[in-house]
Amino acid sequence: MEDTEIRLKEIIITRYGSLKKFCEIIEMPWTTLDSILKRGISNSNITNVMKITKELKIDTESLASGIIMDSIEKKPQTIAAHFDGDEFTEEELEEIKQFAEFVKNKRK
What we know:
Layout: H1 3-16, H2 19-26, H3 30-39, H4 46-56, H5 60-64, H6 90-105
């Protein structure tokens, strides 16, 4: 077992108590996980690796490179619009502002 696989096994046991319990959660035979940990992540079926990384919330590409890194969901933090010149009338701009306010108020 390589360092990455050893660290992965430690993470699973720390978070789930046992490899068997983790396998039940991700619906993977224990023998498959055992084989992945022994043969190495890079020699494993991508579907199985993705099951593991999805449940552990770690980045699949980084894991393939031997790095265990939390996955980062990419969500837009800011949505902005830029209007040049005379694309909208003053009334239309006011309506756009009102609609944006309406959308914000729906959160409450």
